[in-house]
Design a protein that fits this description.
Length: 497
């Protein structure tokens, strides 16, 4: 078994490119396992600032096979996201072996987050594994890898100050927004979406003293979410916006053809491309949108909140204000990678829009000693996991030795029992009983296994060394492949400028 990961995150790509790449990511793991024979398991992490695919490959890998596997997976990602295979391939950072473990543990612990120390990512890593289980794409090795990553994240959270300050994308957004808001106990907030970020937003708002929180959802889950979080559901987004000071949008519905254009009308979820992909229909004209020269879809995906709806809401707010000079300003936080909010909203009078790109630019630094302490925990956990994993790789060689020893044991026991039987017969005594044969077998097996000890140690050491050498070579190949992709990205960016 070889661990292979393909990563695209805010560190390697701008958020627009990452958004295109991760569209339709929910089906990728299932398709990769279903179409790539050597892939025994796959887990996909797709969040507001990363798209990562972790693979358990049941085959020897060389530099050429890593390149082939990367290209094959990139083609599948391309089909589900609407970019070209070339664009997808050069978007990934490729890791193999121990680098996969080190990276996932760092991600789960918040060390690779847009806001270093963010705790939401730990839950996202757990949910990625749960989704892989539901889709039946995980494997024993990936189960152990992700479970250990979650335990490592908990240790970082309890043994360091990295997560003590409640650092998160949500917290950073609220920190920026509060400069333009009334006091928190007088702020009226509207949430768009009912996922994990919505739950985190409710908690963060309440911690600041905001009590007037309403929730809107096109999927019809607002009432259920409102009941479980003790907030108020709303049916009309425009009506709610007319009375709001703050909007936190985190539905991630863009890309599922959901749009808010009027108070009464919302499109139904429509995802023919993913259905086609799962069915294996990669080619036809209805599967993919037309692409631009850099691999982006020509037609923009629908936004949950567009400028027209917001203008209507602001007009209603102005009507309600009556003789007042102008309605209160509206601050919008768009926390969805797929841009719930139309960027044109920023041009509406009296509206301030903060999206992920803005938050990324304002992400605060973390004290070096805190990061170093967390990194030490991650490194130690990754080392232990790799030692255990390599030990399991060597177990096959050890099992073969024991199988060989068992053949020898049976032969020697048969020989001893035959001689004993002959001696007893010569003295006119009955043949050995089952208890006598079991005693002989125990003695022979103990002696043979004792003689095996030195051979087992040598075989395990040799197998571990060979696995390390092979993975070291794969790491070099992966680094070369990533460097090549990075150079292509830089060349593409220069050409567009």
């Amino acid at each position: 078994m070889v661990l292979l990961s393909l990563t695209a995150s805010h560190r390697e790509l701008d958020l627009d490119a990452l958004e295109r790449l991760s569209t339709g990511s929910s089906s990728v793991g299932r398709v990769v396992v279903g179409t790539c024979g050597p892939v025994a398991g796959a887990v996909v992490i797709s969040t507001c600032n990363r798209f990562e695919l972790y693979l358990d490959v049941d085959a020897p890998l060389s530099g050429d096979s890593v390149r082939h596997a990367t290209r094959h997976v990139a083609e599948l990602v391309a089909h589900s996201s609407g970019v070209t295979g070339e664009v997808a391939a050069r978007s990934f950072t490729v890791r193999t072996g121990p680098e996969v473990t080190e990276h996932l543990f760092a991600v789960a612990s918040g060390l690779d987050a847009m806001v270093v120390g963010e705790r939401e990512i730990a839950g996202q890593v757990k949910r990625a594994l749960e989704e892989a289980r539901e889709q039946e794409t995980t494997s024993k090795t990936l189960e152990l890898l992700f479970q250990t990553a979650s335990r490592t994240s908990k240790r970082v959270g309890t043994q360091t100050e990295l997560g003590a300050a409640g650092r998160s994308v949500v917290a950073l957004g609220l920190d920026l927004a509060e400069r333009e808001l009334p006091p928190w106990d007088a702020t009226r907030a509207v949430l768009i979406g009912t996922g994990s970020y919505a739950g985190a937003s409710v908690a963060a708002l309440r911690a600041r003293g905001c009590a007037d929180i309403r929730v809107y959802s096109q999927s019809g889950r607002a009432a259920t979410f409102a009941q479980s979080h003790d907030v108020q559901p709303v049916d009309s987004l425009v009506e709610a916006l007319a009375d709001a000071d703050l909007v936190v949008s985190c539905s991630g519905a863009r890309g599922r053809a959901l749009a808010v254009r009027t108070d009464q009308q919302a499109a139904e979820p429509h995802d023919e491309r993913l259905a086609d992909l799962v069915a294996g229909n990669y080619g036809g004209p209805t599967t993919l949108p037309h692409l631009t020269s850099d691999g982006a879809p020509e037609a923009s995906l629908g936004h949950v909140l567009d400028a027209a709806a917001l203008v209507r809401a602001r007009e209603r707010a102005a009507d309600r204000a009556g003789d007042e000079p102008e309605p209160r300003p509206l601050v919008i936080l768009d926390l969805a990678l797929h841009r719930d909010v139309d960027p044109g909203v920023a041009d509406v009078e009296g509206v301030l829009l903060y999206d992920l790109a803005t938050l990324k630019a304002h992400a605060p630094a973390v004290a070096r000693d805190v990061v170093a302490q967390a990194q030490d925990i991650v490194d130690a956990a990754a080392h232990r996991f790799e030692e255990t994993r390599l030990g399991r790789e060597a177990d096959a060689a050890v099992v073969a030795l024991f199988d060989e020893a068992e053949v020898r044991v049976r032969a020697e026991v048969a020989d001893v029992v035959a001689r004993l039987t002959a001696e007893l017969a010569a003295r006119g005594e009955p043949a050995p009983q089952d208890a006598d044969v079991d005693l002989v077998a125990r003695d022979v097996r103990k002696r043979v296994h004792a003689e095996l000890h030195d051979r087992i140690v040598a075989v395990r050491a040799r197998a571990t060394a060979e696995a390390r050498a092979a993975e070291a070579a794969l790491v070099q190949d992966a680094e070369a492949l990533t460097a090549e992709a990075s150079a292509q990205r830089d060349a593409g960016s220069a050409a567009r400028r």
